[in-house]
């Protein structure tokens, strides 16, 4: 607490004022914490115990022992279970009794917590019975609504749930429904339709995949292998070097073109450099008759290395990726020089 005005002296009488709505929200969040604690134990098992809890007017936070991520189904079960107790308008009863009596009624005490001889027991029907000195609603209906907004791990074996109640939960639900409506409208789906938005999204995702496959095919079809072979340079007895700089991103398409070029030249080396986002795909192919003199893997390492990249593979076919396109003509020249010199 900070003193904003005047001075505070010993023996002075103070009047504490608590905001009505903040107090009501805190009560709702605290009572919901008890209901959720009971729901967690019934959905996940008795191993669930409280490992930390914080309640404020805006939300509740609850840490508990459990060693797995909660599934969507478990989260929904916990939410329905708590909301069912809210809907049943259960009176919240508080009773002060001896610790012995409390234990006899089966009230849930927190491990590691120190309790006095007399304790306060909070009951919400048969659903929840906990030792607690905190502030609560008088009837569960005052919580109005319960919604989990996040679930995650805090440390090994400890999970954390954050949830909201009352006006916050209702606003959250209404905003989500309206956002869903907008998304459906943008997808061209009627507000109430048999098709869920997620099936529409799945359909679109598979459409995109098919289109991408089509684009790859078309890119491959645009390349004329005979034009490529025309530009080949002779070396050795009757071998050819095909060097292609192609606007192709897909490795498989590039490999197919390399294969076709190899079949046409019969004897030689095919080097293809594609066009990628960051690094460009590169592949090298050596025909069988030249395998004693050249290894595709070694040539590729050299070429990709000059272009700041790397790769490897079999003696007859290797592939890799390289980012520096500005070295392309240098690569081509050094390769030609070397083959001609032999
Ligand atoms: Zn409590």
Question: What's the quick description here?
Answer:
By secondary structure, this protein is of the alpha+beta class.
Structure, explained:
By secondary structure, this protein is α+β, with helices and mostly antiparallel strands. It folds into 2 domains: 20-170, Threonyl-trna Synthetase, Chain A, domain 2 (Threonyl-tRNA Synthetase, Chain A, domain 2); 221-341, Diaminopimelate Epimerase, Chain A, domain 1 (Roll), CATH 3.10.310. The protein is built from 9 helices and 13 strands. The strands form 3 sheets. It has a 6-stranded mixed β-sheet, with helices on both faces. The protein has a 4-stranded antiparallel β-sheet with strand order 1-2-7-6. Helix 1 crosses helix 2 (72-87) and helix 5 (197-222) runs parallel beside helix 7. It is elongated. It starts with 19 loop residues before the first helix and ends with a helix. The mean pLDDT is 92. The structure holds zinc ion (ZN).
Q: What distinguishing features does this structure have?
A:
342 residues, 2 domains, alpha+beta, elongated, Diaminopimelate Epimerase, Chain A, domain 1, 6-stranded mixed β-sheet, Threonyl-tRNA Synthetase, Chain A, domain 2, binds zinc ion
């Amino acid at each position: 607490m900070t003193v904003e005005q005047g001075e505070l002296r010993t023996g002075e009488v103070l009047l504490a004022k608590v905001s009505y709505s903040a107090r009501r929200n805190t009560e709702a969040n605290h009572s919901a914490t008890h209901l959720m604690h009971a729901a967690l134990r019934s959905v996940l098992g008795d191993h669930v115990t409280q490992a930390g809890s914080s309640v404020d007017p805006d939300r509740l936070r609850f840490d508990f022992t459990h060693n797995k991520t909660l599934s969507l189904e478990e989260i929904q079960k916990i939410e329905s279970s708590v909301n069912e107790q809210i809907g049943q308008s259960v009176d919240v009863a508080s009773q002060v009794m001896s610790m012995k009596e409390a234990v006899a009624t089966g009230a849930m005490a927190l491990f590691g917590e120190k309790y006095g001889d007399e304790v306060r027991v909070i009951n919400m029907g048969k659903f929840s019975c906990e030792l607690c000195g905190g502030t609560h609603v008088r009837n569960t209906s005052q919580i109005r609504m319960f919604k989990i907004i996040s679930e995650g791990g805090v440390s090994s074996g400890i999970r954390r749930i954050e949830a909201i109640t009352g006006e916050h939960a209702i606003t959250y639900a209404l905003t989500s429904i309206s956002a869903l409506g907008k998304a459906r409208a943008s997808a061209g789906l009627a507000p109430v339709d048999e098709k869920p938005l997620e099936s529409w999204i799945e359909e679109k995702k598979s459409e995109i995949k098919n289109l991408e496959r089509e684009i790859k095919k078309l890119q491959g079809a645009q390349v004329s292998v005979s034009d490529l072979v025309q530009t080949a340079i002779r070396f050795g007895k009757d071998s050819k070097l095909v060097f292609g700089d192609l606007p192709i991103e897909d490795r498989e398409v590039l490999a197919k073109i390399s294969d076709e070029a190899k079949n046409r030249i019969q004897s030689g080396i095919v080097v293809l450099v594609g066009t990628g986002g960051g690094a460009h795909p590169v592949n090298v192919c050596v025909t069988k008759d030249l395998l004693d003199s050249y290894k595709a893997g070694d040539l590729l390492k050299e070429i990709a290395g000059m272009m700041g990249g790397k790769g490897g593979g079999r003696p007859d076919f290797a592939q890799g990726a390289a980012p520096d396109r500005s070295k392309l003509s240098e690569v081509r020249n050094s390769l030609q020089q070397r083959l001609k010199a032999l």
